[in-house]
Design brief:
Elements: E1 3-9, H1 11-20, E2 28-33, E3 36-41, E4 53-58, E5 61-67, E6 73-79, E7 98-105, E8 109-110, H2 115-121, H3 123-126, E9 132-133, E10 151-160, E11 166-177
Antiparallel strand pairs: 1-6, 2-3, 2-4, 4-5, 5-6, 7-10, 8-9, 10-11
Length: 178
């Protein structure tokens, strides 16, 4: 059965929940702060309260937060398997909704340079090994995905009402796309 939980947490409570958070192996995270955008495999030690917004996600669920102006962390979990550590259950809001998966192609095309080619070509090229490049972005993009595919898709799970209007949306997974 699907689970929807949400709580407004103080900084101390948010930090405590984060330290105990144990999503399934292979989970991803997206973090944002005024100086950083991070897309990587889940590593709790990389997350700080400077990250004003973030998501930890995998096929079984998504744990996300947003820092509100008053310093409270609005934290929401939506998924099939509850690893949220949140207490306030709002799962009744999911009754009657259906799920649909949609995918969005992300920025960048896979650089074909390998690490060994980068080492022989010099350090500057080594930094691009395994990166996705997009001509309009001033830096390489690194997605936490082991795939030979040229592109990456972010799979989203939309929870829709009978009129097919999206009521809830969560990140589901990353997949390669050629």
């Amino acid at each position: 059965m699907a689970v929807l939980k949400a709580e407004d947490l103080s900084l101390e409570n948010w930090r405590a929940k984060l330290q105990q958070l144990a999503p399934p192996s292979g989970a991803w995270m997206v973090l944002t702060s005024p100086s950083e955008l991070c897309f990587d495999f889940f590593q709790k030690e990389r997350i700080s309260d400077d990250h004003s917004w973030g998501r930890v996600f995998c096929p079984s669920g998504e744990w996300r937060w947003r820092k509100l102006p008053d310093g409270v962390f609005r934290t929401v979990f939506l998924g099939e398997e509850d690893w949220s550590l949140l207490d306030a259950d709002h799962s009744s809001h999911l009754v009657g909704l259906t799920t649909q998966q949609k995918a969005h192609i992300l920025w960048g095309e896979r650089n074909s340079l390998t690490s060994s080619e980068g080492e022989s070509a010099g350090k500057q090229d080594l930094s691009l090994a395994g990166a996705w490049l997009e001509s309009i972005l001033p830096r390489p993009i690194f997605y936490p995905l082991e795939t030979p595919a040229k592109r990456v898709k972010l799979v989203l799970e939309a929870w829709c009402n009978q009129a097919h209007e999206v009521q809830f949306l969560r990140y589901h997974s990353l997949v390669g796309y050629s």
